[in-house]
Amino acid sequence: MPADTSTQQLIARRNRLLGPAYRLFYEQPVHVVRGEGVWLYDAAGNRYLDAYNNVACVGHCHPHVIEAIARQAAVLNTHTRYLHEAILDYAERLLATFPAELGQVMFTCTGSEANDLALRVARTCTGGTGVVVTRTAYHGVTGALAELSPSLGLPEPTAPHVRLVPAPQSAGDQTGEVFASHVRAALEDMALSGIRPAALLVDTIFSSDGVFADPPGFLRPAVEAARAAGALFIADEVQPGFGRCGEGMWGFARHGVVPDMVTMGKPMGNGHPIAAMAARPELLKEFGARSRYFNTFGGNPVSAAAGMAVLDVIERQSLVENARRTGTYLRERLTALRARHELVAEVRGAGLFIGVELRRGDSAAAGETTKLVNAMRRRHVLISAAGPSANVLKIRPPLTFGMEHTDLLVEAVDQALQENSID
Ligand code: PMP
Fold this sequence. Notes:
Largest sheet: 7 strands, mixed
Oligomer: single chain
Bound molecules: 4'-deoxy-4'-aminopyridoxal-5'-phosphate
Number of strands: 16
Helix content: 25-40%
Structural class: alpha/beta
Mean pLDDT: 95
Strand order of the largest sheet: 4-10-9-8-7-5-6
């Protein structure tokens, strides 16, 4: 069905004004005008079940977060060159969610900036430049991170100091030794080229690689391999962090490792641009001795208020527990679809971070996945796809998602798979 005239006009205006690098979701883009909880509303008043926006982790327009932002914005908004308690109160509360080794935190506005900063710290402290990332990783928009984000579609190899390793496989690598052996080989290859390693940088749920969560602990041998070669381990928690995995606040914790640095963003302010990098103080001691840091907007009082309010809601509404409970139910229901639809090959994930791999026999069902995502959109349920072949449904609803929303989502997948003979 072609988009209506007003949608076509908006698309044309957008292309004219924003240029060609931007991408829209869905064959029929959605023109959203309002959000509330797990729901988004379009200009015509239609309601969509949002099962994709991990930024609005406590639900769209949560009143407690909005009120905190508005209250602080009405009083003062400056930056970190003045003394202010808000950033310190927030830093204390945020750091309390980390292992004691990660004792300091620096604030940015985006996940990209947090990763960029972590990279600078890693390079300063190791004296190396090399970085190992996964084959379909995404870590951000800066020049340095675009080189570490092969999912952007850059030609391989990305840059001389970058080594790509295959994403961990859910089957056949129960101990993580296969993944670790790839990391080891990448570091050996780096050494052969005379490049010193600085970091192993991974998204701890491997979102853009297609969502790989199990078994917990599989990351550990790879981290040990990186450290043995002199590299630091940076856990990118921009996607899995803040309770989404349903066990504690952070994805790395499921793997029983303590990173050298942790980057976070997206859900941190429920849509307000706040991000951060937590680190071992000994690293920041060295970095701080050589560089100074100022980020005009990073860690301002309004951002700190937003971050604090998000933590309030996660705690008060027991959203980590909800992510675990609802996520388990959602995975069970999706897994049950395997009996009804040949295409559904594997359901993976932790908490409310779920990947559903669609295959036809041995082949990635990429075309069918795109069709399904669009069929779901026509049914007013929003999800997307990930993975090197874009054949993994990516499902990451707000952490307030309930059983009733789960039923709506699974019924939509079931019906959409039957529709137009996708299956
Ligand atoms: N790391 C990961 C794993 C991400 O998914 C993203 C954003 N999609 C980023 C970093 C970059 O965050 P931002 O868009 O806030 O710069």
